[in-house]
Amino acid sequence: MKPDPHSLLMATGELDTHPHDCTLIGDSVTDVAATVATGGRSIGFANKAGKDTALRDAGADVVVTAMTAVAEALGSA
Q: Which fold has domain 6-75?
């Protein structure tokens, strides 16, 4: 269970990639903590008021309040 990074490390192993090359989108502090533990990047999804501060404090690289921001960024890649 998160924040233990075991499940993320298993997923990157299955994908045959390094955690540093991955980004997790999560809506909880434990999601961000697990990602930080792997050395990967994280996008905090602040789906409730006040969550943005907690996600930033946990180490999220970026915090968004709408998934459309992620979709638009991916569409421009």
A: Rossmann fold (3.40.50)
